[in-house]
Amino acid sequence: MKKILFVTHAAHYGGAELFLRDIVVHAKQTGRHWPVVFLDDGPLVQDLIDAGSDARTVKAGAQILRLKRGSSIRAVVSALIGIFAVVGALIRAFRGVDVVCANSQKSLFLAGLAARLARKPFVWILHDLVTDSSFSPTMRRALVFFANHMTSHVVTNSLAARDALIECGGRADSISVVYNGFDFAADVPAASDTDRGSVLQEAGLPDLPTVGLFGRIATWKGQHVLIEAVERVPGLQALVVGDATYQDSAYFDRIRALVEQKHLSDRVKFLGFRKDVRRLMAAVDIVAHTSIDPEPFGRVIVEGMALGRPVVATRGGGVGEIIDHGTTGLLYPPGDGVALAEALRSLLSDRAMASRLAADGRSTVTARFSIERSVQDLDRVFDGL
In what order do the strands lie in the sheet with 286-288? Predict the structure, then answer.
């Protein structure tokens, strides 16, 4: 088997990092050698080492780590000037490697230059919609240029992400779609009454219909939409699981204040960052997804469906590739708290429909989004270079 070296700038958990962790761990378990080089420290480095995978850190310059989606051309040029030492370290790390694969935007620039100099086949995994308004024109042009001229192939995590890259000038003939894969055998079964009771008791909630919202607290994730919807559905309570980064702390403050203003403190509970997400997810009646901007994929949606929970999610992006409205879940317009409330009411009032959506959703995602399928799809990309 080919030795594939993954490079990524972040070692703190997000959707792209969870994808990387899952495929690398599964690759190790199935006899593949897929080591990882990180450009900064974080918990994922040690987690991979603990799982028996090969992971290490090559420190990147501060300039490249400060690059954001909205960065100006001046910031991009400044970052490029400061990266030569990192590129040299990466070239040394590429010895004996058959393919280099970047798993993030910042690692695209660094690993792309190093792979070109080391004459290694280079793949970039794109986890975003480059048409998103958060990307500055400069950053968007830089990403498309590197995708077209510095990579051997591009992998996107959805058809929506692929189409967005093509819309911005990406070469359609060098893009493949590989969906996020999940180890469904590790999923806990639907919670028993005792499990549900302990979760609600820990949260300080009574045993009433409960909706769960899971993920990073951020404006574009739309937690405020769920709060608006819960206010409109008497008898419904909510668990909000996740934390905010420093940049989104003001939004977190606003939504907590919103709960107070609407007198919902006894019905909406914030649990912060949790490692037992599957246990919490299995204990709620409904899993909600509230992003107000299009999602490139939607890991939480798949996780909720895999646990046999009925899921209500916003339309747009890659979500429509996961949920078939009315068959495997319910979709509503982004940012529409009234429509979300109506969807939640329909699930609570029609338990037969909720059970059918949950059962069909589970069977669909477990068939389409397995970790083995994702690793095999990536293998085909690497073997075809």
Answer: 268-272, 237-241, 210-214, 286-288, 311-314, 330-332
Element holding 156 (H helix, E strand): strand 153-156
Helix (H, G, I), strand (E, B) or coil at 272: strand
Tell me the C-alpha distance between 141 and 139, whole Å.
5
Instruction: Report the C-alpha gap between 267 and 205 in whole angstroms.
Output: 7
Q: What are phi and psi of 330, to 5 degrees?
A: -120, 140
Tell me what the pLDDT averaged over the chain comes to: 92
- Cβ atoms of residues 86 and 65 within 8 Å: no
Residue 240 has pLDDT above 70, yes or no: yes
pTM over 0.85: yes
pLDDT of residue 85: 73
Average pLDDT over residues 322-333: 98
Share of the chain above pLDDT 70, in %: 92
- Taking a C-beta distance cutoff of 8 angstroms, is the pair 313, 236 a contact? no
Tokens matching residue 153:
């192939």
Spatial distance between the Cα atoms of 67 and 359, rounded to a whole number of angstroms: 43
